[in-house]
Amino acid sequence: MVVSDDYPGLKAAIGEVLPGVWWQRYYVHFLRNALDCLPRKADDDCLQELRWMYERCNVEEARRDLKQWLEKWAVKYPKLCAWVEANIEATWTFYRLPLARHKHLKSTNLLERFNQEIKRRTLEVRIFPDEVSCLRLVRAVAAEQHEEWMEGSRYLQAELLREQIKPIKTTMAIAARHSAGGAAT
Asked: What is the extent of the structural domain holding 120?
C-alpha cells in the first residue's frame, strides 16, 4: 500500500514501479483540498463531519455516512459535495486492511516521523566525510525503524499484515495466470 498526494505523475510512477500495490490519497491533504471548494465563512461542522468519515470501522459504514453527509450539505455547499463525492473513495484504501491498522496506515504519519528521525540524526553528525558515510547512517536508521515497526507493539504487528497480504498475492497470481492464458487465445 502506498499513501501519497494525488499528483498524476506520482501515481503513474507508483503504478509503474510498484505494480499491484494499493494506492491511497493522503486524507489530510484531501481535507485541505476540500477547503478550495468552500467559501471562507463556511461551517466548521461541515468539514468536521467529513473528517469523521475516517473513523468508521469499515468502508460500508463510511459510504453510508457519506451519503447522509452529502444529503445534509448538498444544498448549502454543492461544489464541495460534488468534489468530495468524486474524490473521497481514493482516500479509503486503508479500509481494506485490518481495523487495528487503520489508525497508523490511513496517513503518512509513520513515514513523516521516520523522515524527521533521519533529519535529526544527520543534523547531529553535521558534516559527513563522504556520501557513503551518510548513506550508511541513513540505512542504519532505516533498519532500526524497520525493526521497531515489525517487532514493536506500538505501531505495526507484522503478522496481521502478512495475513492480509496472503489473499492479495493469491488473487494477483490468479489474475496473472488468467491474463496470460487470455493473451494466448
From this structure: 109-184
